[in-house]
Amino acid sequence: MNTPGKTSETAARYNPFWACLLVFALLAADTAFRLVASARQRKQLDALTLQQQQEIGRLRPLLQSLGEVETRLQNLSLDLLHMSQTNATAAQIVREFGIQWNPPAGGVSAATPAAPAGAANPLPSTNPAPASAPARR
Question: What angle do CA 88, 77, 109 make, to 5 degrees?
Answer without folding.
Answer: 135
